[in-house]
Amino acid sequence: MRGSTRIHHRPYYPPTAGDRYGGPYICRLAPREDGFAFEWLDSSCDGTHTLHYGLRGSEEKNALTLTAPTADIGGLENGTEYEFFVEAENGRRSCTRLFRTAPVPDGAAVINYLHPEDTQYEFSGRYLCSPSLARVENGRLIAGMDLYGNRMAQNLTVLFYSDDDGKNWRYLTDLYPFYWGSLLYHRGVLYILGLTTEYGNLQIACSKDGGTTWSSPVNLFYGSNNQCPYGGMHRAPMHFIQHSGRLYTTCEYGCWTKNGSTHCPAILSIDADADLMIPENWYCSDFMPFEGEWKKASGFRGDAIEGNIVIAPDGGMYSYMRWKIGSLLRLRIDPEEPEKAPEFAGILKAPVSNSMFRLIPKKGGGYRMITNRMTPVLETKKLSFSVRCVLSEFETDDLEHFRFVKDIFNYENDDPSKIGFQYPTFIDEDGMLSLVIRTAYNGADNFHNSNYMLFYRM
């Protein structure tokens, strides 16, 4: 094979994929209460293809001739494990894919699903993570997600699109290697900013055709890995804001280790008129050291991650960061000095769990918060780490006092160790929020290791 810096693949195959390479490939899966929908590709055969499906582990399979690259199968039993594969007339088969039937949460649409024991993406991961969302000029929605797994490579991102405001979704392309990516549509170009792998190098790529093809990635800042004592670059798919002619988003440098962890926060920025694909145009602030007031407030662990940059009522720019259950960390940003580290600006009480939250400015003033919250029912279960089975909306006028608005999803009466509606990403269009939500539900490995990516409008 020839050398290449291309990152878009339909789909990506590891070089040792063998017979899988170029054959039937199931690129999207969406189970429901009584059936499943899926999409498939095959570059090796233009002839007849057959779907084989049945109960998981059973040799008896139903057979159905496929006449289109998408199919929707009904008549299945709720709460039941199934398996299926696609076979071409030349005898080549796709991977056997797994799913479990269940009702889709109210108001949501399934972008993609991955059974926790499905091995199709095991070269990268077993679970769907890092939701990201953008709308491009023709009105199309683009949703991204990556594949996570403990002690796995974690370097594949998959993109899907919708042309009907999120009701129905189709596969677009794979991006490899890309991880923890944030989609940004800026001045007619779609960008993705992320890492090569967990704690790897920070890179950016762009697409001028709505996400179908992508430029070669450009390295912005070097990272390392999770096992290094100093760690490497870290970021979730955090949003960009534009303020006073610059684009801003957040990152950290650090690691998770058995001896504790420290993630040092920083701010990424670039002139909004500059070429985003030129590394020298980007600034990364100094990383805020774990010392002084922050260390005193935090104790042993210095984990402040996944900051939301907003302009506060006092006109200042702040990053509000995930920190502890019931509290968030506020850091002050100096827009006049893009290389200056953020400064400690206080600890705020807030209705947050130990999970990412979103702060969203409202037209006319005030803010919306989308967050996981603790409820009285959950408090009786004496959970010590994280609660993500309830996803809620709050409002605040001053970023200090929060009013409950409603629960988007509430599964407090189910097992919170197995359910999570988390890491909501959004685009705000005149107050109408489109959300993509990383979801553990219907037989997930646990609340953290998500098997669904859901779309929801509110």
Structural class: mainly beta
In round numbers, the mean pLDDT is 94
Count of separate DSSP helical elements? 2
Major β-sheet, in short? 6 strands, mixed
Low-confidence stretches: none
Helix content: under 10%
What is the rounded distance between the termini?
Answer: 48 Å
- Beta strands, count: 34
Assign an overall shape: globular
Rg over C-alpha atoms, rounded to the nearest angstrom: 22 Å
Strand content: over 45%
Fold and architecture overview:
- The chain is 2% helix and 48% strand.
- It is mostly beta strands.
- Strands 18, 19, 20, 21, 22 and 23 form a 6-stranded mixed β-sheet that branches.
- A hairpin with a 5-residue loop joins β10 (127-135) and β11.
- The longest helix has 7 residues, at 292-298.
Indicate the topology.
Layout: E1 8-9, E2 25-32, E3 35-41, E4 49-55, E5 62-66, E6 70-73, E7 81-88, E8 97-100, E9 109-113, E10 127-135, E11 141-148, E12 157-162, E13 170-175, E14 179-186, E15 189-195, E16 202-207, E17 218-221, E18 232-234, E19 241-243, E20 246-257, E21 260-271, E22 282-284, H1 292-298, E23 302-303, E24 305-311, E25 317-324, E26 327-333, E27 343-349, E28 358-361, E29 367-372, H2 376-379, E30 390-396, E31 402-410, E32 420-429, E33 432-440, E34 452-457
Parallel strand pairs: 21-23
Antiparallel strand pairs: 1-13, 2-3, 3-6, 4-5, 4-7, 7-8, 9-34, 10-11, 11-12, 12-13, 14-15, 15-16, 16-17, 18-20, 19-20, 20-21, 21-22, 24-25, 25-26, 26-27, 28-29, 29-30, 30-31, 32-33, 33-34
Name the descriptors.
458 residues, mainly beta, Immunoglobulin-like, 5-stranded antiparallel beta sheet, 2 helices, 34 strands, globular
